[in-house]
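Repro case for the chain-ordering regression, as requested:
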Amino acid sequence: MFSMKLRHSSDVTLLQLFAVLCFVALLVPEALAVPSYSRQTGMPCASCHYAPPELTPFGRKFKLEGYTFTTKAQVTDEKKGHNAALALLEAFPLSIVFDTSLTATKSPQPGTQNGNFQFPQDVSLFLAGAWTSHIGSFVQVTYDSQGDHFSWDNTDIRYANHDRTLFGKPLTYGITLNNNPSVEDLWNTTPAWGFPFVGSNVAPGPSAGAIINGALAQDVAGVGGYVMWNEHWYLAGTMYRSEHIGGAQPNSGAGFSYNIRGVAPYWRAAYQTSTDNNYLEIGTYGMHVKSTPNAVTGLTDSYTDWAADFEYDRTIPQLKNDVVSVRGTFIRENSTLLATFAAGGAAQTSHHLNTAQANVEYHFGTRFSGTAGLFNITGTSDPLLFSQAAVSGSANGSPQSNGYTLNASWWPAQNVDLAVQYTGYLRFNGAQTNYDSAGRNASSNNTVYLLARFVF
Amino acid sequence: MRKFFLLTLWGMSCCLAAPSAMQAQSDADKIYKTNCVLCHTADGSGSSPTGKAMHAKDLRSDEVQKQTDAALAEVITKGRGKMPAFGAKIKPDDVTKMVAYIRALPNKK
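-- result from build under test --
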């Protein structure tokens, strides 16, 4: 069993400080209006979220329609003859998220202090709301305490039109500009918005991951389109190019692991259906990337990711409309690493990687939620691609990791999240014991994560 | 002759009034699509996943249609339950048009 060892009196002090902070958070009065979408719609967070960032059907529709729905007063002008129309929010759509956290692993990472307190872990500014009657945004800029600077974060700017029909059925279509494959998605099964919804940024994590699973996040620029027909069928596609924030432009590729050659297509198809108390989505998504590490010419690495996902939400009227959510996704990645092999970074060219994730969550109204999730990563062993290194490496070259994540969140107000999360590893980077050949076990990375999040 | 004159006058007033009525219908249609379709759907049934999740009323139902115009206008303006208030966005004249639009929904079945 995991036990957090308090090795220094300073750890105790930090914990006490965190406890005080949590206690203070309990005293925060219930908020009537939270970030800019809530201010724009005049509706509580719970209209769009079972618990942020998990979207309800209304939240999905709001996103689908370009974040433009509003019930509030606008500065308007009519489209007449040569005059363009205007529909401008009176309130500037700005929001802030403030995260502070404590991370402790079962065994400290060598040479570091365990019980890592981050105040803040990060702070995000959002420009999130309607720009015009058909264009809206989710733009995030985040200050990260480790880098000690602000950087561009998830962005989705979209045009949407829901005033059409096709074969007599409603049709919504749109265009998205975004910087993270799947950030434009409507469900909490795809990488950008999947479980765990919060997490430590200092605890060790498995070294292997599919390229669609966050490797390109905020490092690409994409333009895509989507349609939802008859409220059931969703189709989307986006073309991405590398866009290295902070790097010199035009891009030379130097210093960056992924430099997309040509364009990288991302695709998405989903079907949703519902009854009064049941909601089901099944879908598929994927991506094909050709990339050259550290260059924009020469040999390429090729990745093709195929994924399937599902989400089921059950509202229970007998229990005050509590909601049970079950979600899952499976990603299969096939890769041919010609460039990495030629550079001595892989022992063979052909690899595959399977990533399976599933979780079940119970929402006690909008005040509490408990989630249990499983994850399993398997794939081709390669002693060069998954090489030996203390903590982060693999002694046997295997990418296999599996384990579970438990999360409990308490929302004293809809815009305050106090979360406790435990991640347990049964296998880490290929082994249960001494996985890094430096004496570290998989369970050494078991992590307790405490988070206080304030959104306003 | 007098009958002919009255018929002509009636015809002319119909012609003059028709564009105005059509304009009102067009305005109401636009307002409905912009503000109401998200939950209540184009036919007013609220049968979409969003409508079901929000427990949106079937605007064609007796429960809605039996309410007075004033009551419907109040719900639009001040909101009720999960439905937000639109009073800050939709002008009183347009609220009246929306009530008429809702009254006409059962005939579009």
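Ordering looks correct now. Chain B has a mean pLDDT of 84.
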